[in-house]
Amino acid sequence: MNMRPSALDKPSIGIFWLFIAPFALLTMVFGVWPIVLAIQTSFTASSTALQANPQWVGWANYINLAQDPVFIKSLASTLIYTGIAVVSTVVLALLYALLMNSNFILGGHWFFKMAIFLPVVTPDIAGYVVWRWIYDQSFGALNTFLELLGLPLFGGIASVSTVLTSVLIAELWHHLGFYVVIFLANLALCDKGPVEAAEMDGANRWQVFWHVVFPQLKPALVVNFVYALIQYLKTFTVVAVMTKGGPSENTNFVSYYAYTLFDQGRYGEATAMASVLFAMVMVLSWLALKAQGSRRS
Amino acid sequence: MAQVELVGVSKTYDGNTQAVRDVSLKVSEGELVVFVGPSGCGKSTLLRMVAGLESISDGQLVIDGQLVNDVPARERDIAMVFQDYALYPHKTVEENMAFALRLRRISNKEIKEKVQQTAELLKIEHLLQRKPAALSGGQRQRVAIGRAIVRQPRVFLFDEPLSNLDAQMRTEMRGEIKRLHQRLGATMIYVTHDQVEAMTLADKMAVLDQGRVIQFDVPHKIYHEPSHQFVASFTGSPPMNLLRVVSSDGRLMIVDSEAPIEISNPSAQMLAIHSFVLGIRPEQLSLQSQGSNDISVVGIVLLTELLGSETLIRVVLGEQSAICRVHGEFFGKPGDKLTLHCDPQSVHVFDVNTGMRSVQ
């Protein structure tokens, strides 16, 4: 069915715009306009950025960024963290969804679904505060438990070597359910016929999955991959609540670094940084979607 | 090629719903057996048990002398053609057909040869590089059949393979499957709800109702000697007329709460039974008397349907009715009185309580 406005008759076009207008307006005012303003601010001197006639400095803020070792480190850690987080999110969500969909779990599907989805609807700040306590070196539940078992203690968010893992675990706990739901929806839509046909053709469980189920999961894979990419590139709340960018700036991801600069009144550099992040999100998402599109054809 | 034997096979869901009850039958090597029955009769469940896609609750499934109840589907070496084709949507026709062979690690060269030969047999060589989405229903069904044939399995199973096709394509594919069976000489089990398909294809057919096999025999016997009035009412188009009759004082009457209708000239055997169901095929009823022994009854024309070379006349007999199939056209009008004649040798007698055929 073709639902483009051009395919509709005239009164329908009026109704089409009527329904679209409120949301288009909201998007323009609260979505597009701030982005335009931020990009504009990134070309002004921080001291005059909030004035009516700011001083234009061209690419100066961007050049400063490129020469800022903290930003370079921030960018690198953001990309590394995003890479690891996207892969682990998509893979774990897929495994969880497959487990839920398999006959390995005999009952209590509602419990497993609730257990994975409840954190998604939990306020993220509350969740991350609890995780900070769990990781706490003096009274945290995790180390108390490890101590009881006589196992070596976990550095958590206090140690450079474990902080990324710790933050990732907290984020996975919070977000995974969303991705699982997307995979479960796709699995429910999968055609069972070819699965049976493959069994009859002599395929074992793994071959059935790889040759028949997995290719049918491409829509969910693409959605989850792109969404995870966007989400982890923008990682902010978990850092703001748990690590404040530390230790040793290891979790000083771009969006958090931009926020701290903004807090210091360095509006020009902060918005330049945000603009760089925005451009990265746009380009990477576009590339991911394009790669998928070409594979499909 | 293999022999398939079912011994007391049953399927129970949730401990009480019985989809298949105590089915015993044997499919000999190279035979094409059709499971036919109305929807919900358990025919597909029975086929899926043979395939290994459904577990067997009770009884034994024996293929070539080996008990296979607990052998998983992938190890049974049985191919199945599904109603909705169940092609692998992201694979080309060639990959679809080659899939089972690849899993067996057959050499690429041999796979290519086999796929090519099968594609030629089914006239789908020009479709090999296409994906299923780019094929018509008939082409998809050919591919599905090709995917089964290329494996050279021990047994072929067909689960209502033609019911998603239009009438013309169905007739064409029916002929094709019959030719394939003759050519391959393979053991095949075919499920359908269409009795015409069953009659035309089957070496032997099993008529199922409510999970039971009512009759398992060659199509000729199923049609001419139905063992049960269900079989009689399921086969033939239109199916056999079944009239409840009683005999008393040397007269044979069609049961009616107000005015029973007398059947003239009943045979001595008919009069010997008090109450029974009289079965007469529509083509056995005629408008003219064929001999002095003919039984006859007077009814009223309800409606006529001209099929071209023949006409169906629906005749009201009190509270009951019968259909008569005559050659050529019939010029009577609704409401006309009409005398129907029938050779007593061609009627069937069924027990009024059990529905079983009474020996005549």
Structural summary, described in words:
- The complex is a heterodimer of chains A (297) and B (360).
- Chain A is built from 13 helices and no strands.
- Chain A is mainly alpha-helical and 297 residues long.
- Chain A has a single domain, classed as MetI-like fold.
- In chain A, helix 3 packs antiparallel against helix 10, helix 7 runs antiparallel to helix 10 and helix 12 packs antiparallel against helix 13.
- Chain B is of the alpha+beta class and 360 residues long.
- Chain B has two domains: 231 residues, Rossmann fold, CATH 3.40.50.300; 111 residues, OB fold (Dihydrolipoamide Acetyltransferase, E2P) (Beta Barrel), CATH 2.40.50.140.
- Helices cover 25% and strands 33% of the residues of chain B.
- Chain B is built from nine helices and 19 strands.
- In chain B, the strands form four sheets. Chain B has a six-stranded mixed beta sheet, sandwiched between helices. Chain B has a five-stranded antiparallel beta sheet with strand order 13-12-11-14-19. In chain B, strands 2-1-4-5 form a four-stranded antiparallel beta sheet, with helices on one face.
- In chain B, helix 2 crosses helix 3.
- Chain B is elongated, with a radius of gyration of 24 Å.
- Chain B starts with a strand and ends in a 9-residue tail after the last strand.
- The mean pLDDT of chain B is 91.
- The chains are: A mainly alpha (297), B alpha+beta (360).
